[in-house]
Amino acid sequence: MVWTPPGEPRRFTRGERNAFKALIIGGSVGGLAAAHELGSAGADVAVYERSAGRTEPRGAGIVMQPEVEMLLERLGSSARSVSVPLHERQQLHIHGKAERYKAPQLMTSWDTLYRALRDPLTEVCYRLDSSLARVRVEGHDVTAEFSDGYTVRGNFLVGADGIGSTTRRLIDPAARPAYAGYVAWRGLESESQVPDDLLELLSGRFTFFGSRGMQMLCYLVPGPNGELEEGVRRVNWVWYVNVAERNLSRLMTGRSGKHFAHFLPSGELMPGTVEEVGAQADSSLPPQFARLVRLSEVFMQPVFDLPPYRMVADHAALIGDAAGTVRPHTASGTSKAFGDAAGLAAAMNGWTPSKALPARGLEEWEVRRLAHLARLSEIGIELAVTSSLGVANGRQFFDSE
Q: 159-172 pLDDT, tens per residue?
């Protein structure tokens, strides 16, 4: 594997060394990580993203993990340059009392990390509005066809297109995500819009609360353009709540009338749902968290399970949530995708289309990563169960019946 030493940014030139051409389906942070890793392994990479504009962040806050930090360092950046440092954890009790202990952490955000990975790829093809429709494998070539009629040929295809992966559906139509029984209400607000007393409580701390059937946590992340200075950072929060599957369709229908499958964007909550969320916060959360929910523009993401099954197909591989999910309580969804990408690049390093695929290396990579994913999945479910999230007899909220 050819690594760039820490502190020396990797400079990309399309076709450099050009061992093989990799088509990466999905342009979020996992796909960008794959572009960097495979590019470092000698591939000519191209990225295809289904969003027509900027990709929509599926989660606002990201806990910095070693896999992410390692790639940033190889790109000439650092974890601290894209993160807000925390020094304490605090548990809120229902009447607002806080218990604290030392726990240093670094917190970044999806858009900040996206920018750190996207900016060095200026010479790499990154095509928006590219919804994958079909894949064909002919000899050493793989052809991707998109819904707008655009067609591209390469030598290897990487599905990094998330929980709703089209790549996975084409490879294995039977593998479908299953609703885990709870949702994540989310907010991401400028700290300048948060009252001073509330900001003083939250700043520099990972704050959390739990009760039967729900869990909430909060921490500060960089500003919308990666700012780390006080006054321009953002307050990120997530509130996990049991919601019966029969109520999910109602909650996932937006103001536009569109029904969303995996993510309800900011600004799409129906007015009645906004009031439901506020009223539930008032009755269920510590007063500080209830205030925060009330002043936020809320968005929502249901939690899904996709058990690990396979990652490798003929001239193709799946990484990140396309290969299998981990519950968000592990704080490892992003880092797992980065680890998948690094391992895949190591397995593919040195391959050229004139040779047979490195089947043994790919098989060993798949076995290792599936085992890692299976263990992370188990841990995530165990963590959810401690708060009665997604369990059969868990307390239910937002019930319309």
A: 999 999 999 999 99
Helical spans, DSSP H, in 45-203:
66-74, 110-118, 166-171, 196-202
- pLDDT reported for residue 17: 52
- For residue 100, give every residue at least 6 positions away whose Cβ sits within 8 Å of its Cβ, in sequence order, or none: 88, 89, 90, 91, 205
| Strand residues in 72-221 grouped as ranges (E) | 84-92, 98-109, 125-127, 132-138, 141-146, 151-154, 156-159, 178-190, 205-211, 214-221
Burial tier of 163 (Cβ tally within 10 Å: 0-12, 13-18, 19+)? buried
The model's confidence at residue 56, banded by pLDDT at 50, 70 and 90, is: low
pLDDT of amino acid 145: 98
For residue 327, what are the contacts with CB-CB under 8 A and spacing of at least 6? 180, 303, 305, 377, 380, 381, 383, 384
Other beta carbons within 10 Å of 400: 10
Nearby residues of 19 by Cβ (< 8 Å), 6 or more positions away:
41, 42, 43, 350, 351, 352
User: How far is it, in rounded angstroms, from Cα 56 to Cα 76?
Assistant: 26
Among all chains, which residue has been given the structure tokens 């990120």? 236
In the predicted model, what is the mean pLDDT of the chain?
92
Written in H, E and C, the secondary structure of 127-142 is ECCCCEEEEEEECCEE
Taking the C-alpha atoms of residue 38 and residue 341, their distance in angstroms, rounded to an integer, is: 8
CA distance 335 to 72: 12
